[in-house]
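Issue 218. Parser rejects a valid record. Input:
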Amino acid sequence: MIDYVTSPAGVNVAQLAGGFFEGWASPPTPEEHRLVLERASHVVLAVEDDSAVGFVNAISDGVLTAYVPLLEVLPGHRGRGIGSELVRRLLVEIGPLYMVDVMCDADVFPFYERLGFHRTGGAVLRNHAWRAQR
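Output the parser choked on:
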């Protein structure tokens, strides 16, 4: 059974060590992942058998806007509706705002479209040397 929690307070680093950030050249450590969750304006985690199997976070001004930078479900748990439920619950947590933005790769867009998001333009800046600079 999946439990959904809206705070990282009861989640420890060991519960985040299950393989998140798949395909990242230099993924965050579980300690950094925990900080990402703690410092987000909003977070929803999917927990099964005392381990996190998915999460989504948002950064928001609480007035007009929110940005959803990360949504991840562990590979062995995909296809079960966990990602959709994480986003639905996050939108409830965020509340009614003028805009909630997500930047995603083209192959992921249909997932967000099913949840009511619309295609738009955007731009990103990625600092791939970030890890080496720390």
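Fixed in the parser; the record now loads. The longest helix spans residues 82-94.
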